[in-house]
Amino acid sequence: MTWFPQVVDLRYFEEVSPHFPFFISLNRVDSHFPAHRHDFLECSFVLGGSGVEIINGVSHPMEKGTFTFLLPYQMHELIAHKGTPLELYNCMFALDLLLPFMEQMPLLHKLLLDSPQEMSPFIKLDAQERARFTGLFAQLLNEFQQTSPWRDTFIRVKLMEMLIEFDRTRNQALTHRLAPAAILRTGSTKDDDMWSILLYIHHNYKEELKLHQLAKHFHRKENRLSEEIKRYAGKNFVELLHEIRIRHACALLASTDLHMSDIAVEIGYGSTQTFFRTFKEVKGQSPGVYRKQIGQHQR
């Protein structure tokens, strides 16, 4: 398996197109996969072996049939038990891959942006469910490796199907009081607190969000909060806010015919000039050029 730095994004994977932020691979962990966090979402599915995964200081079992869904910036690591290496799929994608569908699908919006922290990030699948998820991951991997017509649409559809199945199964487990519980807390609540802050930024990026407001809301000192955001997200507050906004802009440019001024307002910028300047700083090209290129790519 490729080693990850502590904070990464999908640009670390050469196979990932900037126009379609998705990656899937089949991997093996022989002993330990170091603690890391990233700015994309990740689904993993264990085919064999046994071990544990630690997410924000909380450990849960990893064994055949375990499906885990990780939100951005959650610190996690994998430990395989001696003599039982973990074999698993890892599927990674940026939030903006599904943004065009979120306004029409409230449950998808809730799953990706409004899931309560107490919701378990993993489920244990029975034999029938394992077979279904094994097929879904195999289809996603096969399609990802192709250049066939409808490839990107097929991947989006299968990804949506997988997330729906996960959410249904997790909710059914809660209904029947069978939700798997984390077995060990290995750290303090500090990671959870920072996740709450990062999640708040993701929820409120359309507002006129300022660092001093964020510090006041979470009862933190502004300088200290700035340092913590940099350490956890790999970028400072302003860079993180711009990146989240520009991601949404990219999704709107790719999936709608909205005017640039409307997109600027939609993602939280007070002026089109600020939007144009920031977009070029982040993406290295103007919004118009990006829209033209993505249109050519989708034909």
Automatic annotation (TrEMBL):
One of its GO terms (molecular function) is sequence-specific DNA binding. Keywords: DNA-binding, Transcription, Transcription regulation. Residues 195-293 form the HTH araC/xylS-type domain. SUPFAM superfamilies: Homeodomain-like (SSF46689), Regulatory protein AraC (SSF51215). It comes from the Bacteria. Signal peptide: none annotated. Pfam families: AraC_binding, HTH_18. PANTHER family: ARAC-FAMILY TRANSCRIPTIONAL REGULATOR, RESPONSE REGULATOR. This is HTH araC/xylS-type domain-containing protein.
